[in-house]
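Lab notebook, bench 4. Still working through the backlog of constructs that have no structural model yet. Next entry is a single chain of 62 residues. Request: give me the structure tokens for it.
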Amino acid sequence: MEAAMKMKMLVAAMLVIMMMSLSGMKGVAAADAPAPAPASDATIFVPTLFASIAALAFGFLF
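Model written out:
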């Protein structure tokens, strides 16, 4: 039982690492795009990403 939980935690950690590495490789098109306006909701993406990862982790664990 404990080994299964450890395996699920490893899978969740690998998923987080993969998501972080994929988010760093946006490509050239993102570098050429203009920056969003300060009034835009672009900063909401980061908390949404963490909430999605937390939901995936709970899905794997339970």
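Notes after review: The chain is about 75% helix and 0% strand. Residues 1-23+45-62 form one domain. Flag for follow-up if needed.
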